[in-house]
Amino acid sequence: MKQKLIILFCIISCNNSTKTNSFETFNAFNIAFFSDSLFQQTRILLPIAFKNPINYIPEGERNLNENNSDTFWENSNLKFSNIYTLDTGNYFIKSEIYDTLAIQTVGLKNSGLFSKFYFVNRFNKWYLKRYEESVN
């Protein structure tokens, strides 16, 4: 009887540790996010904070916060191009990856134009939380 309990305990412990330790790496997520538009739609947290120097979101689809620094995109039809097909002679990609946050900067070399993607890790899955376009 004691051996059966030990075996049962080991089976339960092994199954639980597999479930809690399963996580999505940022690199695997990032490739899927930019190459699969359907996957991309499931991994954008809405409303998404959006900031750009020239606000081109249609008036009826934006919502400014109190200090007017961010626009919040509430539609789910945002689509981002595949950054991995960009000409690396003209563009750069820089990634800063932490435990629960990843910041990815994509820009046109020697132009001051770039975009920043802010991804957060929730329950071991990555999601886009904020997007910025900037000109230096």
Compact summary:
The chain is α+β, with helices and mostly antiparallel strands.
Description:
This protein has 136 residues and is of the alpha+beta class. The protein has a single domain, classed as Nuclear Transport Factor 2, Chain: A (Roll). It is built from three helices and six strands. A six-stranded mixed beta sheet has the order 2-1-6-5-4-3. A hairpin with a 3-residue loop joins strand 3 (91-97) and strand 4. The longest helix has 20 residues, at 2-21. It is globular, with a radius of gyration of 20 Å.
Content-based structural category: alpha+beta
What is the number of E strands?
A: 6
Q: Major β-sheet, in short? A: 6 strands, mixed
Beta-sheet strand percentage? 25-35%
CATH architecture: Roll
* 3D shape: globular
Helix and strand sequence: HHHEEEEEE
CATH class: Alpha Beta
Distance between the termini: 71 Å
> Which fold name fills CATH's third level, the topology?
Nuclear Transport Factor 2, Chain: A
Ranges where pLDDT stays below 50 over 5 or more residues in a row are 4-20, 64-68
Total helices: the number is 3
**Which value, in Å, is the CA radius of gyration?**
20 Å
